[in-house]
Structure formats: structure tokens, C-alpha cells
Amino acid sequence: MNVEKPMIVLHGLLGSKVNWRTLCTIEGISKYRKCLLVEQRNHATSDHHGEHSYEALSDDIIRFADKHRLDKFTIMGHSMGGRTAMTTACRYPDRVDGMISVDSAPKNEQDLHAFGSFAERVIDFMCDIDAQTEPKPTMQETLDAAKSFFDGQAQLVTLVHRSLVSGPGYGPSDPVKFSINLKALKTQFANIPYFDETLRFHGPALNIVGGRSRMYEFSVYQKVFPNYKES
After folding, report:
1. How far lies 148's CA from each of 74, 77, 132, 144, 152, in Å?
2. pLDDT value of residue 215
């Protein structure tokens, strides 16, 4: 492992560092990069905060890098993590030697109604479950309700499942408990599709777009990343 080439890797909305674990152990990646999987604020094992903005998220990354004594690093992220990666590169260009964004464009999509609609539905569902107190639904009851509510759509049910606190002391018959900060993600959901299009990063940049993801004109990417190359 080339410890001189660290790469911070970020999950997307409602995700966790587990999402990237398998990919980062592939020899073609692990041989050349030391992958540091980071769970972003208000998700999984990370701290809960009232603010959920990309300025705050990018500041978190720099604090993580400082703690691990990373003077320079590459940063890669998916979806929400991609926006964090882009924002970090633009705000801290002296710390970032390369940026990779997956399924996330340097475009403010707050006015795009379809953005994250499935994720917002999942958050709304979990907020409704969390508000029930007499009695509190069990984990199994929550998953059964999710299957019914989402008509068996596996992707959405999986997002709910992965947002449950699990491990020693937590079983299917225990009262449901969520690992994500539902209040912050719900009240600040409008921040998630936001991107400050005035930002710039002149270092190496790559945007990877999946077949089902939204692709913009080349100029949208190159405006923020002048050294971005069309492939």
C-alpha cells in the first residue's frame, strides 16, 4: 500500500462507509491508494449536528485530515459525498491533489424537483416512525412497514434497514432506533442538492456519471473545474 497517496472516500445521503468498503479493497485501488473511509456528519457512527451544509461538511473533512496528519490527499465521493468532495477541493485547493465525484455534478439543483425525491420519501417515512411513541415500533415492525409503504421496492427498504442502529443489544424485537440525525436531514434537506457554482478548483478533477444518473453539458463541469477533461 502506498501510504504517501491517501484518498478520502465519502458515501452518499443515507449511506455509510460500508458502501465503499468492498471497492476500496480491490487490488487495483488498494495497491495504489490508502483509502480512508469517512462517515459524514449526521450519518451512521458520526456525530450529530444541527447544521448540514457543504461548508460544514468540507470543514469536517479538513479536521479529519488534520487529525490524521494528511497534508495532501485525493478526495472521492458519491452523490452527497461527491458534492462534499467538490466543495472541499474548491475551498481547500492547497490540501487536495485530486478530486473524483461520482453521480454528482457541480450544479445547484435546488430547483430540480426530482432531485433526491426517493431519499426525501425515506426520510419522511423514518420521521413518522420515529414520532410514534405508544408503543415504539420494533425494528422488525419498522422493516415490515417499510416494505408495505414502499411497495416492496428493495432499494428504499434497504435505505431504511441500513439506517437502523444494530449490533449487540439491538435485535428485531427491540424498539426501533435510527443511526442518522433525522431532524437535521429533514429540516436542512434543501441544502443537499445545493452547490456553489462560483467555486473553482484548478487541480485534477474527474466526474464519473452512471448510466441512470443525470449528465450535464461539458461546460457545466469545466466552469468549476477548468482542468476537467472530457472523456
Report:
1. 42, 32, 17, 6, 6
2. 81
Q: Is residue 191 helix, strand or coil?
A: helix
CA dist., res. 72 & res. 164, Å (int): 35
Give the Å distances, CA to CA, from 147 to 129, 137, 151, 203: 13, 15, 6, 45
C-alpha cell at 155: 432499494
Sequence-ordered list of residues with C-beta below 8 angstroms from that of 107, at least 6 positions apart, any chain: 195, 197, 216, 220
pLDDT single digits (tens) 207-223: 998 877 778 888 999 99
Q: What is the pTM of this model?
A: 0.92
Q: What are phi and psi of 133, to 5 degrees?
A: -125, -20
- Within 10 A of 102 (CB to CB), how many other CB atoms are there? 21
The full DSSP string for 54-118 is HHHHHHHHHHHHHHTT-SSEEEEEETHHHHHHHHHHHH-TTTEEEEEEES--SS--TT-TTTTHH
